Amino acid sequence: MNIPCKVLLILVVATACTGGESSPARQTLIDSRDTYDPRSLDPALSTDVPTGRAVGYIFDGLVRFTPDAQVVPGLAHTWDISADGMTYTFHLRNGVKFHDGRPFTSRNVINSFQRVLDPATKGGRGWPLFPIAGAQDYAAGRGGNRISGLTAPDDSTVVIRLKEPLTIFPKLLAMPVAHIVPDSVPANFGENPIGTGPWKFVEWRHDDYLKFARNDAYFDTPPKADSLMARIVPEPSTAVAEFESGNVDVLYVPEGETRNWEQTDEKKAMLESAPALRVFYVAINTTRGPLANVKVRQALNYATDSKAILDGIVSGRGSLAAGVIPPSLAGADTTRAGYTRDIAKAKQLLTEAGFANGIDIELWSSQTPPFPRIAQAIQANMREAGIRVTLVQRDASSMREASRAGQTDMALKDWFADYPDAENFLFPLLHTANRGVGGNVSFYSNPQFDRLVDASHREQDEAKRSELYKQADVLAFNDAPMVYLFFYKELYAVQPWIRNFKVPTIFTGQRWTDVEIKRP
Amino acid sequence: MLAFIVRRLLLSIPTLIGVMMVVFLLLYVAPGDPVQDMVGERADAETIARLRKDLNLDEPLPKQFILYAGGVLKGDLGNSYITQRPIIQDIKERFPKTLLLAGSAMLLASILGITIGVLSARNPGGWFDRMGLGLAYLGISFPVYWVGLILILIFAVTLKWLPPSGYGGIEYLVLPALALGSRSIAFLARVTRSSMLEVLGGDFVRTARAKGLRERVVIGRHALRNAMIPIITVLGLDFGYYLTGSILTETIFSWPGIGRYVVNAIARRDLPAINGTVLFLSLVFVLVNLITDLAYAKADPRVAYS
Question: Which residue in A139, A296, A447, B214 could disulfide with A117, CB within 3.0 to 4.6 Å?
């Protein structure tokens, strides 16, 4: 056979192998949102988004998040909180079984938490469990062979004593790292996970896809679809092509494509959005040179045209930030006026601070889009106010290390919530206890702010807690330890044949249990 | 020739040790912290310090290197810091896929590139030659990611002949192989053409024609064989390059190969994964170069190994 014939044959065979767009004959739901291979499928190693999502399919926590970020019962059907807010008693469901048939009991909870904290696990993500009395000592190898605050009086009860009151504690338990694994897991558990969740693990082709099958014995309503596939597609343009070919059901619309999708009627009909728990900001290191002066920091805010950046660079996908609490969370004050761009005011503040001739500072950003473009816009904005910004671009890892070590004047960053609560923004980003590696790379330290956040940890009354959040947020806002840019909005495209897919506010909030392919 | 192969393989040992040392040193001086990448956001200093100790990252550089090199000598490339999987297993899973892609791209490139080159050289200045040269310029000028996206747009999204991306049967292989090979097709066509033109002007070609051989035999048996040396050089270099550098193609086409693996490892400062993969790929490069040298002798018996 000569060459042209071969090529022709390949094309003919290939054409025969691929299905058409309008007929999703497949029974499998296909996701395209993962851009890199999960770290593992072991809850104890869930430090990244693809891992967290997959762990959420296979496993359950005592509680879990809904797509709109409410905390609902998981393996625990109810829980009581002692009057002092120190002790949580979780009442577990009976008759729950792991995918291999073994029964779930309170012992699994104790062992799972110990495993996460065990130094030998080398997971590195102990912090969601550190509020438990004795947990941090256990993680450091000091606490003997058990965690003092964890007890199981009987097979269906777990009592957790905290080292100090923490009202948001149940939200921490909904995180993937606190999902429950069976006893005596093998060394390669990360590749062969067994949980209690709505989906059973089937196959993992690294850098290619993950496959799951419905767990018919799921204690809650089992998934409607037979199977679920999470494809790993590193290039956003390719994900769009896969979506347009009908090969995937859900697409995370890339920023650069936003306008195209919003302005084409046929495409617009497929769009679904939800406010993201994600803020874009510039951390201003409040300990470095002129940046220690609050007026200088306010001047940086007045100099920045956040609105132009939001509209011009991320296609208007979001809302302007005046504080760190996303508008959808309790404690957000959507009436607060932000630092609207005002060059004269910026110059005046700089003069008052004694920098009439302007200042020279560095702005660090990673190379991941859209950060370099935002950094360039900020540089141009600030130049007009006499602030001479040198851009420093590094890969994400180097930048993180430098900003945590306090070596950056300003660091352009974004922050995703791990759990839906204002505390997840105020505490890591601005509390004194989290300076450096904890996430506060502004090195902001205000005892009054700390007291408000600490009080919110203890406050059990929802309304009072929101008020504390609001006060803390406005306090920091006036101190301007960051340039407040914008809160992001999630934008998904969902195929017309997909029913009941809700865009999750928190990344683990969509477990595909209600989602199904509509039959004609 | 066996002695030659053995000697070349022995000579590659110092090369590989050198590679290992340079990579180790580079990663040591490069900014970024593997432990901070491991634990993600909201780390605490105590956990970071403990993990650093567990991974021997607090040891002095020479000791770290000796510990690592000791493992390599025993055939153990270590486990990934991030995933905790053995590096060897990761390479075993991904390299064959990269090899398949690179091999297909090279096959496609040699068939198309050499054919275009030979046909162009037969009638320099003719319509085919000019068209071929034009295409070659385009092929060399367009970056591979652009070619990849255009191929996806035409053959997958619009015509729906082939799937846009992923790994599977031959239908998944066609587009990435074409995208990856496009540069080689162009390059080979040009090298083949100029090499052929040089050879076709030689006395022995005139003699061959004078003794009444058919043009096909003159071109195929006499001219092309003599023109092969530069072509083999280009093939060898490109093949090595594809095995190690098909990162963009693998990313565009979601191809689960070793290029993406090593890029992810670098982004997360997964030191054992970077060291292990670079070492492995260096070995591959050494082998490809050796095979190229052996191919010279096959094409031209005058090439001697000493």
Answer: A139
Per-residue confidence at A520, pLDDT binned at 50, 70, 90?
low
Ramachandran area for residue B257 (φ above 0: left; ψ -120 to 50: alpha; else beta): beta
Amino acid present at A103: P
Contact A455, A409 (CB under 8 A): no
Q: Among A406, A384, A407, A382, which residue's Cα sits nearest to residue A300?
A: A382
Between CA A190 and CA A38 the distance in angstroms is 10
Peptide bond into A370 cis (omega under 30): yes
Residue that the structure tokens 């979780």 belong to: A90
pLDDT computed for residue A9 by the predictor: 42
Could you tell me the CA-to-CA distances from B109 to A64, A73, B184, B199 in Å, in that order?
Answer: 53, 59, 6, 22
- Pick from B162, B163, B252: CB nearest A235: B252
Beta partners for A204? A210
Q: Is the CA virtual torsion B144, B147, B151, B157 positive or negative?
A: positive
A477 with A469: CB under 8 angstroms?
no
| CB atoms B260 and A234 under 8 Å | yes
Cβ burial, residue A97 (10 Å; 0-12/13-18/19+): middle
Q: Which of A10, A141, A234 sits opposite B251 (nearest CB)?
A: A234
Q: What is the pLDDT of residue B223?
A: 85
Q: What is the tens place of the pLDDT at every residue in A287-306?
A: 999 999 999 999 999 999 99
Q: Which residues of B touch A15 (CB under 8 A)?
A: 160-162
Quote ipTM for the complex: 0.89
Q: How many separate helices (H) and strands (E) can be counted in chain B? A: 14, 0
β-strand A250-252 against A410-416: which pairing, if any? unpaired
Closest among A260, A338, A306 to A488, alpha carbons compared:
A306
Instruction: Report the DSSP pairing between strands A359-366 and A387-394.
Output: parallel
pLDDT in tens, A160-178: 999 999 999 999 999 999 9
Six token digits for residue B135: 């295409």
Q: Do the beta carbons of residue A394 and residue A276 sit within 8 Å?
A: no
CB contact under 8 A, B251 and A241: no
- Counts of helices then strands in chain A (DSSP H, E): 16, 19
Q: What letter represents residue B181's amino acid?
A: G
Gyration radius from chain B CA atoms: 24
pLDDT of residue A176: 96
Instruction: Summarize the confidence of residues B33-59 as an average pLDDT.
Output: 86
- Residues within 8 A of A (CB atoms), B 51-110 only: 51, 54, 82-85, 90, 93-94
CB contact under 8 A, B83 and A418: no
**C-alpha Rg value of chain A to the nearest Å:** 25
Per-residue pLDDT, averaged over A99-108, amounts to: 96
End-to-end Cα, chain A, rounded Å: 44
**A122:B170 CB<8 A:** no
Which among B164, B267, B268 has the least Cβ separation from residue A247? B164
In angstroms, the first-to-last Cα distance of chain B is 9
Identity at A463, one-letter amino acid code: A
Q: Are A227 and A212 in contact (CB under 8 A)?
A: yes
Quick check: B162 contacting A, CB < 8 Å? Answer: yes
pLDDT surpasses 50 at A397: yes
Say how far apart CA A366 and CA A85 lie, in whole Å. Answer: 41
For the record, the structure tokens of B127 come out as 């319509």
Residue whose token pair is 């068209």: B131
Q: Whole-model pTM?
A: 0.90
The whole-angstrom separation of Cα B147 and Cα B185 is 13
